[in-house]
Design a protein that fits this description.
The protein is of the alpha/beta class. Strands 5-2-1-6-7 form a 5-stranded parallel beta sheet, with helices on both faces. Helix 15 packs antiparallel against helix 16, helix 16 crosses helix 19 and helix 16 packs antiparallel against helix 20. The protein is globular, with a radius of gyration of 23 Å. GO terms for molecular function: oxidoreductase activity, acting on the CH-OH group of donors, NAD or NADP as acceptor. It comes from Celeribacter ethanolicus.
Length: about 475
């Protein structure tokens, strides 16, 4: 049955669906980047509130800023902006149709429609999921990259921006000039201090063309930090067929695990939904939650995904089943990541590692090693390097993390152990591959990437371990290196 408002009532009884009247919902949020994660996470929390009869004036208007977003928009328009969420639990799968989104801004060159929609007074939050690498951060300084061609364009053409941030700046100028007031900018990406990063990007971009507007945004808008968590695989033919097995023809279904977490700083300048009533947590200590999640979960992903690819293990659950990769995960987490993570009210580091092990091992979640290994040039410095530094600060030799770094270097050579080619999987793949080839004979060259490792190449404790492991991998193979570390 093709998904739409009309067919909702005819879906099989086992499928949950909106119990609220979608025709009376009014917008409150523009969300830029309508990927799977947003629809399985933030949209779901809002949907749960609507099921309780709450947040009826906070419906989502979807948006995108790249030409390929228009294809996604057309798919949503054809099914009244509904999405089927399929929960993949080892005990049994279930499906739910979510209806929190009610519109999608036309995608056009210059983003005029998006600017005008965000400038309307009913929009009080502009949220984003644009990936960790999408915030125009200078990798060397971690500050704003004012030299990026997209940023240069938006600074010179503030009314025809290419980026989501340029569109936000233009909309905020309209709001200020019209007396509408500010909105909250809400990052929902896996970044430490994601709200502070979003503030930096928006304010810095505004300052390039209108310093007074930049000061107004910095003073009036809020950018709450948040930690987000739910494992959400990409959608492909298998997921489309899975939706059909539930009796639904959905062009954009989403599969997800049976776990969600959202911890938010309560800093919203124009109001917010009561997400805590749907299970989210408002906290003044988002940083501790972020640190636990980014180092243990996201760091754990980067420990196992590159080596999984090298050994032709297709999925994350397959990595956990692998006799060497599964042990690598546990040993590195237990000895080099977990000891430097503080507890939070819900979890000790020990219980959180156990939870992550269980989640990664879920065979129903077909989360590929390729997806998780993508953009290592952003994820390695964000998720692995902080734990390396924490080890060194406490006098602990980061042997497992040095091995993890060496395995990533070997991965960037672009071939698996069986000789098959790894397709480009990083925005800087060609540069990484050339450097990885040089590092086979000169391992220290890899650590010269200061935008990733900073001064770690000068710390003999880490550098020596890295060089030893990369040499072992290149001479004896990946499995030999893993066995040596584990024994």
């Amino acid at each position: 049955m093709k998904l739409s408002n009309i067919t909702l009532r005819d879906l099989p009884e086992t499928i949950k669906r909106p119990e609220y009247d979608r025709s009376v919902l009014t917008p409150g949020i523009v969300h830029i980047g309508l990927g799977n994660f947003h629809r399985a996470h933030q949209s779901w929390y809002l949907h749960r509130l609507m099921q309780m009869g709450l947040a009826q004036d906070w419906a989502i208007v979807g948006a995108g800023v790249r030409p390929y977003d228009e294809e996604m928009r057309q798919k949503f328009v054809a099914q009244d902006y509904l999405t089927t969420l399929i929960e993949l639990d080892p005990a049994g799968s279930s499906a739910e149709v979510v209806g929190a989104m009610i519109d999608y801004v036309p995608v056009e060159d210059g983003n005029g429609a998006l600017i005008e929609r965000m400038a309307q007074p009913d929009i009080r939050i502009v949220a984003l999921t644009v990936t960790e690498g999408g915030y125009y951060i200078d990798p060397a300084t971690k500050g704003f990259d004012a030299t990026h061609p997209d940023i240069v364009h938006d600074a010179e053409n503030p009314w025809r921006p290419r980026t989501a941030f340029g569109a936000m700046v233009a909309a905020l100028k309209l709001r200020r000039d019209r007396g509408v007031g500010p909105f909250t900018g809400q990052s929902c990406d896996n970044l430490q201090g994601n709200g502070a990063v979003l503030r930096q990007t928006v304010v810095s971009l505004a300052r390039l063309s209108d310093p007074d507007l930049a000061d107004w945004i910095n003073a009036k808008c809020s950018f709450p930090n948040a930690m987000v968590d739910c494992i959400v695989p990409a959608t492909g033919p298998q997921e489309l067929e899975l939706a059909k097995s539930f009796g639904i023809e959905d062009a954009v279904p989403v599969t997800h695990e049976n776990f969600r977490q959202w911890v938010i700083e309560d800093a919203f300048c124009a109001g917010r939904p009561d997400w805590d009533k749907a299970g989210a947590v408002f906290s003044k200590d988002v940083h501790s939650y972020e640190t636990m999640k980014i180092r243990i979960l996201n760091g754990g992903h980067q420990v196992i995904a590159p080596v999984g690819e090298l050994l032709s293990v297709v999925t994350i659950s397959g990595c956990m089943e692998h006799p060497l990769i599964g042990q690598l995960f546990e040993k590195v987490e237990r000895e080099e990541i977990m000891p430097h993570v503080a507890p939070v009210p819900e979890f000790t580091p020990q219980t959180y590692v156990a939870l992550i092990k269980k989640r990664f091992s879920n065979p129903k979640i077909v989360d590929t090693t390729r997806r998780v290994a993508f953009d290592g040039s952003s994820r390695q410095p964000g998720f692995i390097v902080p734990s390396i530094r924490a080890c060194l600060a406490r006098g602990i030799a980061p042997e497992g993390l040095a091995l993890t770094s060496a395995l990533w270097a070997r991965y960037c050579l672009g071939t698996r152990e069986d000789g098959s080619e790894i397709a480009p999987n990083d925005p800087f793949w060609s540069d990484l591959r050339a450097l990885a080839a040089q590092a086979k004979d000169e391992p220290k060259v890899w650590l010269s990437m200061r935008h990733i490792y900073g001064d770690l190449g000068e710390d003999v404790r880490f550098a020596a371990a890295f060089e030893r492991w990369l040499t072992t991998i290149c001479r004896e193979g990946v499995e030999a290196a893993l066995r040596s570390y584990l024994t």
